[in-house]
Amino acid sequence: MKKLLLSVLTIGLVVGVAVGATTALFSDIETSTGNTFSTGTIDIAVDGENPWEGNFELKDMKPCETGYITFNIQNPGDNPVNVWKTIKNITTDEGVMTEPECQAEGGTWVDYGDHCTGETPKSNLHDWMNYDLSVMVPIDGNPDDWHQTIFKDEDNVKVGSIDGQKIFLGMIPAGGTMEVTQSYHLIPTTGNWAQADTMTFDIEIYAEQLTGHVRLENKSGDPDWKILGGVGGDSIKADLTYNLSGPTFDYSLTGTVTKSSTGYSLIYYADPWPGNNLGALIGTGTSDGSGDIIMSGSTELNMDLPVWPSDQNYPEGAKIWLVPSDDYDTDSKSMTGWSPADYLFETGLIQYEDTDL
Fold first, then answer.
1. Residue with more model confidence, 282 or 194
2. Is residue 190 domain-shared with residue 323, that is, in the same domain?
3. Residue 195 pLDDT exceeds 80
4. Does 24 map to a domain?
5. How far, in Å, CA of 132 to CA of 182, rounded?
6. Which of 38, 73, 251, 350 has the fewest CB atoms within 10 Å distance of its CB?
7. pTM for the full model?
8. Is the pLDDT of residue 276 over 90?
């Protein structure tokens, strides 16, 4: 067996030498020199500070009162970013004891010592405080800035329930800003046990490069664009993944819609209303009997998203909607109806580069 292998190898070498010796080819060499590869940067500032060193203080809060905290996130870099907000490290303290608080906690107030005995301490302010959250991204040339409401007071979302929860705020374009407005409402049923209590917490803002994913949510429409059910509050939503650049817009979508056994259109919606031949049909699909829908494809858009200069959201980003096909005209690329309760809207603007333009 060893000899057989040796023979084959020898023949191969002889043939190789013979071919090499009898072949002559015209040739030319061109060399590109000085090529470089560099990485981009992701860096944000809050209220002009980087690192963010500011803090907020809401004083003398009483039941039924609401305190507001507003700040601006700046993206001074060359890349758009998705941003999340987290309330974390919540701690509470009883602060200075008062006679009404002592009695509310089942204790006995001792006048000669101004102190309380036998009480059951209670200081969980974070479970008695409703939380509101909304965001706004200014868009040059568009009178209607991109905005959405994530929580409202009537949602009864308590600060304690979102402790450590990473909440998606949206996309900030390169060079752009996002205004974040949040409120803390001490609910009317808060009792005397809360007198002089304190609550401290950290606010963390996380920014990340775009990864080709956006969640589409059921929203209220004008004027609040409130995410119905809050973040993760209901099943009516969809996750869209897409390529940030390429010759075609490659996508996949999985979600649940309000209408079962209904045809839906995934569209790029370009302002102003109703679209006016500016946007594009990305793909179509049909929900099943339970309202679940799955779509995927590769679409030749022949445009970047957002498209210049027609879309009023240019250059900040593009709006992606999932709507019943009966409410969208493919030829005019325009909306023909308005039933926002049945639509899914972007929770952050997107950007896409068509590489074969």
1. 282
2. no
3. yes
4. no
5. 5
6. 38
7. 0.85
8. no
215 and 192 housed in the same domain: no
DSSP three-state, residue 121: coil
In the predicted structure, residue 231 carries a pLDDT above the cut 80: no
Q: What pLDDT is attached to residue 44? A: 81
Ramachandran class of 225: left when φ > 0, alpha when ψ lies in -120 to 50, beta otherwise: left
Give the domain-ending residue among 175, 209, 243: 209
Quote the domain boundaries for residue 244: 210-357
- DSSP H or E segment with residue 16: helix 2-22
Among residues 348, 238, 342, 335, the alpha carbon closest in space to that of 296 is found at 238
| Residues 132-176: tens digit of each pLDDT | 999 999 998 788 899 999 999 999 999 999 999 999 999 999 999
Q: Single out the residue of 298, 229, 287, 223 nearest to residue 261, CA to CA.
A: 287
Strand partners, 269: 319
Among residues 348, 323, 357, 319, the alpha carbon closest in space to that of 338 is found at 323
Q: Which of 179, 209, 239 is the last residue of a domain?
A: 209
Residue 114 burial by Cβ neighbours in a 10 Å radius (0-12, 13-18, 19+): exposed
Establish if 18 belongs to a structural domain: no
- Run of H or E including 89: strand 81-93
What phi, psi does 49 have (nearest 5°)?
-110, 135
Segment 295-334, tens digit of pLDDT = 999 999 999 999 988 899 999 999 999 999 999 999 999 9
In what helix (H) or strand (E) does residue 194 lie, and over which residues does it extend?
Answer: none
Provide the b/e sequence for 162-174 (b: ≥16 CB within 10 Å): beeeebbbbbbbe
CA distances from 118 to 98, 114, 156 (A): 14, 14, 33
Whether omega before 223 lies within 30 degrees of 0, making that bond cis, reads: yes
Token couple for 345: 């809207």
- CA nearest neighbour of 267 among 308, 234, 307: 307
C-alpha torsion sign, points 214, 231, 75, 206: negative
What are 100-117's pLDDT values in tens digits? 999 999 999 998 878 899
Q: How many domains does the chain have?
A: 2
**Which CATH number does the domain housing residue 113 bear?**
2.60.120
Higher-scoring residue by pLDDT: 262, 17: 262
Within a domain: residue 19? no
The structure tokens listed for 21 are 């010796």
Residues 214, 320, single domain; the answer is: yes
